[in-house]
Amino acid sequence: MVIHSGESSFKGDSYGRSSSQFLPPPITHRKDCMSAAVKRYRYLRRLFKFDQMDFEFAFWQMTYLFISPKRVYRNFNYRKETKSQFARDDPAFLVLLSFWLCVSSIGFVFVLGLGFWEFFKFLSYLIFVDCIALGICAATVLWIISNKYFLKPSCIGQDVEWGYAFDIHLNAFFPTLIILHVLQLFFYHVFISQDWFLARLFGNTLWLIAIGQYVYITFLGYACLPILQRTHVLMYALVPVFFMYIVSLATSWNIIQTFMDFYHYRVV
């Protein structure tokens, strides 16, 4: 009995030492993590390989950005644990977002009475200016602010990935796009464009909800990072937004109509 126990203990200890030599270190402690340039290259390389994209998961993310945005950001944390990065490595979400950008642009063709050439101008402005250019500006500003002012003292040396900051913008942009560029089109001619208080109330409330969603989802994106603190400051952006909403109702300003006029002027 004693000899058998000793042999068993010895084998278990030997197995433990030998197997540990072949186990990879935890993902958060590896020194060979990919650089930002390599991650960006791999992401762009997969951009046109549709068979390698997980469209089902991307659609799930888009759905839960409306239902429960917190669940979407939990998956970003899982990605950090398994792949050592918060930013998406699958461009499926971007491809689906591009699809919705095209669909909403087609809707504006009918609502604004745009021609064939005006459609491509509108789509180009929407993709390259409203989504990408403004998104790069917003992501860069918040990336700098979060790394400079929100980083915990105990996490000096770590930083927020710029790619993750841009992913937060894309997450927040999608519900805003659906509310202001898809949903409101069904009510524009029959209700929102009318010179009634209820029409202004409905249209401006849609605008408030859309911008509020953008701010809230942006806040959640940074709040879920364990290396940041005081991220609740981002929610203060809702104060001037709500103030603008009250002023618009008091001054009979139809915000949706203003944006529609701007879109029409920009492409015609």
Features:
268 residues; mainly alpha; membrane
Write the layout of secondary structure elements.
Elements: H1 2-20, H2 36-45, H3 55-67, H4 69-83, H5 92-112, H6 116-150, H7 162-181, H8 188-192, H9 197-223, H10 238-250, H11 255-267
Helix pairs in contact: 3-4, 5-6, 5-7, 6-7, 7-9, 9-10
Number of helices: 11
Tell me the number of strands: 0
How would the global form be characterised?
A: globular
Poorly predicted sequence stretches spanning 5 or more consecutive residues: 1-33
Oligomeric nature of the chains: single chain
Ends: how far apart?
92 Å
Radius of gyration: 24 Å
Average per-residue pLDDT, rounded, comes to 83
Encode the helix/strand succession as letters. Answer: HHHHHHHHHHH
Number of discrete domains: 1
Overall description:
There is one protein chain. The protein is built from eleven helices and no strands. It has about 270 residues and is mainly α. It has one domain (about 40-265). Helix 3 crosses helix 4 and helix 5 (about 90-110) runs parallel beside helix 7 (about 160-180). The radius of gyration is 24 Å and the shape is globular. The termini are far apart. About 25% of the residues are buried. The model is unreliable at about 1-35 (pLDDT under 50).
